[in-house]
Amino acid sequence: MTDELQGSESEAPRIDRRTRCERLLEVIRPFRRVVVVSHVNPDPDSLASMLGIKALVETTQPGKPVVLTVDGMIARSENRAMVELIPIELIPVEQVEIDSETALVMVDTQPRTGRRHSEEVMPHVVIDHHETGGDTQTALFRDIRTHLGATSTMVTGYLLEQGVLASPALATALLYGIDSETTGYPREASSLDDGALIWLFPRADKDLLAQIKNPKLPQSHFATFQIALANAFLYDNLVVSWCDVVTQPDIIAEIADFFVRFDQVHWSLAAGVFDGMLKLSLRASRLGGAAGEVLAVVVNGLGNAGGHDKRAGGAVRLPDSTQESLDRLLTTIRHRLLEELAIDEQQGRRLLNGCPVIPPP
Questions:
Q1: Does 219-350 carry CATH code 3.10.310.40?
Q2: Distance between CA atoms of residues 91 and 250, nearest Å
């Protein structure tokens, strides 16, 4: 009996007491180099997360090359300022070869979620905070914490675990990455996000942060806002704005953020065309809105969508370039969204019924 008991104890599964970061570093240790990827048109959270992973690997595994990539374009003015001023060296992902000696690390997104142009090579590591689940079964390391507001919070935690010193530039990037994801009210942030902000703030370059957050804007930015204001419609507590063809896709999210602050609405949907795709951004003004789930239902069978409680994005490939096809698609999306939010379409009206033209002084 004693032998049987001892045998049972010896066969009990061992508890892995290594930290997440220790397990991450162990996974990439056998590889000769590391390539870091993110979602298409990366935002501050993904850019900062990639930069943090680079600092982590270069400090803990000296001599190992780390390549940061860009999928799509750096579109929003703040994002371009961040890349130029930090600076962050990025290589177009299509120019990077992934061989058997390369560890592929994916941050701020997950495989097979429609947020990347190419899914030919599956990542060895996936680090993300989004609720939109992807295909991570083949990943050797997965750290997905949907209760956190930013992937940059997770990467900041890795740096703290390993005692990696954050330079002023890196601290600024991570601080802005977290702040950009948790901005607005109510905030989608946890105590870990706030703790990371507290640790990063005294280490960040405040002048550099101010430059990133206040870039100069092109004329097309204001033109898109004019179009969106002229083509905004109010349906009870939802405002739907049409941005037409845009010069860069991130401005659609800016339009959605702009309209959700209207004191008569709880929901804001902005839509525009970029590169043969209908881009969508949905915002909820209250926690519990499940914006990601709502938009996923709206575009089901048409395209892809996902996001968080208050913020979501989606895209639908246009069948052709005709105005008729686009109008039909917009009508379908509007009908589905109104049905999902239980809003009567008959309540709809134009937000601004013509604006007076003020003569020049």
A1: yes
A2: 20
